[in-house]
Amino acid sequence: MKRLALACSISLLMLGGGAAHAAVITYSATLSGLNEAPQNNSPATGRTTVMIDDATGMMTVNAIFSGLTGITTASHIHCCTAIPGVGNIGVATSLPSFPAFPLGVTSGNYTETFDLLNSATYAPAFITRSGGTVDGALTALLAGMAAGRSYLNIHTEAFPGGEIRGFLVAEVPEPGSIALFGLGAVGVAALGRRRAAAAA
After folding, report:
1. What distance in Å separates the CA atoms of residue 124 and residue 193, rounded to the nearest whole number?
2. DSSP structural state of residue 193
3. End-to-end Cα spacing for the chain
4. How many whole angstroms separate alpha carbon 181 and alpha carbon 163?
5. In this structure, are strands 24-31 and 45-53 parallel, antiparallel, or unpaired?
């Protein structure tokens, strides 16, 4: 099945004659204590958007939050739960927290862009469980996000396991954008392989 999907994607790329068709897929989530597992009664609220640019292989994370009962200790994306929208799973992105995420606060906002082809973007254990390569981690993260099996979590001193979180859900793109994003994801993986070959 994987080979068939890859062959179809490559065929579509060839039919496109190499034309640059960039797509940005946006995922969003409402962050709350009720979305945690187990649930908690935190009055905090938050919102996040995660944008994936398939032309550049970059991911931009935006988050805003307020009303936390404890001060922030970490935030990251977790992936990939067994069932969409429920459960807990290990951290997928950098540890101990997103770089430059506001720590020691009860409210704030955050914007940062990450290179999905850079190993520093991922937690080492996530790379290991994704086949041991950055390409594998990239593929697993994109697939997990597309399937609703990833979430953004904000951890605090009051709730070390996470005070508020939300599962990332794709905002509805134009129908053609979905196909283009799939093609772009194949291109991003190929770009990663070229970078690795050039570095060797």
Report:
1. 19
2. H
3. 31
4. 33
5. antiparallel
Give the CA distances from residue 115 to residues 54, 58, 94, 108, in Å, rounded to whole numbers and listed in that order.
11, 5, 11, 23
How many Cβ atoms are within 10 Å of 54's Cβ, its own excluded?
23
Q: Where are the beta strands (DSSP E) in the chain?
A: 24-31, 45-53, 58-66, 72-79, 108-115, 150-156, 164-167, 169-170
Asked if the model's pLDDT at residue 58 lies above 90, the reply is yes
pTM assigned to the model: 0.77
Extents of the domains making up the chain: 22-172
pLDDT in tens, 141-151: 999 999 999 99
Helix (H, G, I), strand (E, B) or coil at 33: helix
Alpha-carbon torsion angle 32, 35, 37, 41, nearest 10 = 50
Task: Give the C-alpha separation, 155 to 148, whole Å.
Answer: 21
Residue 107 CB-half CA count within 13 A: 5
Which residues in 111-122 are b (16+ Cβ under 10 Å) and which e? eeebebbeeebb
Decide yes or no: CATH 1.10.3470 for domain 22-172.
no
Are 27 and 50 within 8 A, CB to CB? yes
